[in-house]
Amino acid sequence: MANILLKSKVTNSTNVLVITENFKNEFNLPDKVNDYIVNELSQKDKKTLTYNYIGKYISIFIVEKGKEISVLNEQLRRHGSIVADSVNLNKGKDLYIYNQTKQQSLSLFAAEGMVLSNYQFIKHKPTAEKNKNTLQSIIIANSNIKQSQVDELNIVCSATILARDLVNEPVNYLNATDLSNAFKAMGKLSGFKVDVLNRKKIKELKMGGLLAVNAGSVDEPTFSVMEYKPNKPKNKKPYILIGKGVVYDTGGLSLKPTLASMDLMKCDMAGAAAVGCAMYAIAKAKLNIHVIALVPATDNRPGFNAFAPGDIITMMDGSTVEMLNSDAEGRMILADALHYAKRFNPELVIDIATLTGAAMAAIGTFGMVGMGNISNNQKNKLHQSGINVYERIAEFPFWDEYDELMKSDIADQKNIGGALGGSITAGKFLAKFTNFPYYHIDIAGPAFLSSKDSYRGKGGTGYGVRFFFDFFKNL
């Protein structure tokens, strides 16, 4: 990962992004170069300018007056991504940010976009070594930004990159046990506790949903319990995060098609990566909040004694589920985790999962779907964090009528609700296992991208890590 640093001034021999409202030549540029830049920026509606000058890459970003702040921040992230890509193309190692505006925090958003855009997942591709990104340092210059702000941003970016690595890792390198071991390693590095329940303990707890999904696999399931609790946390009752940890999803006996479906399903544990890596960032930054994360993990395969459509599954809470589609497996393992969460008497429980194609069909890859029974105050805080990091929440209704679609003739409920409102009925299924303030987030759209989207890149995006960190920081 490229590191973000602070320095007092820009050197003459480096690449630089200038954030400005009215460009000033403060870099000893020759008059001809300065005249060219000033002339180009004087043109109507000119918002950005790039210039290569004897090996120096110069990019200028014009801040529009009156621009909504979250949109402006996102523009800086995206422009930072473009600049970082260009510097790598030119084999540059250092990139400076020089902010000529009074909004000094804009430098942080540009740096964030640069670091995240610099990410590559090439560990399994030896031939890519020659194309490895060269950018190593992003330096914020001439700024009143504090070192603590830079340290925090480095932590959040590193946590997001850890999540991307986990999501991009194929199942032959990352099964359920490997995932729990990754959480243990992060706990040791950042200072949160990790307890991993094995198959024997999972059976003792009667986690019927997790065991049913795992029945077709040769690999054992795990249930990871992560906890970060400072000495005197601000919250009396813990916040709980739950992440879907399906490390690979064939669809089970309800087999998925391969092209643009099953071939991407190493990403079905993106929710687990989000909560585990959010815990890493929260603990590393020493936020004064008591947080617990739960991750039920398994792969979903059609082998051995795989659960079959029509099966009746007894869940951890004792209720029964008529399993009509084995590709609706994520809700089965999350349900047991939600019941397990009751023992902590939580302030709020949030689950995050690549749960339904219906969520992606509804809003695409531009945000995440959210729904739940929480107060408007809690909901507003979550939505604001989504806006702050530009991982926005599209709020879906949680009307009682959707409960009717989940009723079964022979069990307490079905695991699918039909063709309509698929993302909502999935949330309604999960809500049956709660007795606490609960919010469900579906990241099926943005968790894994088939083509590059600015600083989010291609492949695993680490969606949810920055969102959770911002939410807990602001608490």
CATH fold annotation of the largest domain: Aminopeptidase
In the CATH classification, which architecture of the largest domain applies? 3-Layer(aba) Sandwich
Subunit organisation of the chains: single chain
Global Rg: 24 Å
In short:
With 475 residues, this protein is of the alpha/beta class.
Explain this structure to me?
With 475 residues, the protein is an alpha/beta fold. The protein folds into two domains: 3-145, 3-Layer(aba) Sandwich (Leucine Aminopeptidase, subunit E, domain 1), CATH 3.40.220; 155-474, Zn peptidases (Aminopeptidase, 3-Layer(aba) Sandwich), CATH 3.40.630.10. It is 35% helix and 21% strand. The strands form four sheets. Strands 7, 8, 9, 10, 11, 14, 15, 16 and 18 form a nine-stranded mixed β-sheet that branches. Strand 10 (245-249), helix 8 and strand 11 form a beta-alpha-beta unit.
Q: What are the main properties of this structure?
A:
Leucine Aminopeptidase, subunit E, domain 1; 2 domains; 14 helices; about 20% strand; six-stranded mixed sheet; about 475 residues; elongated
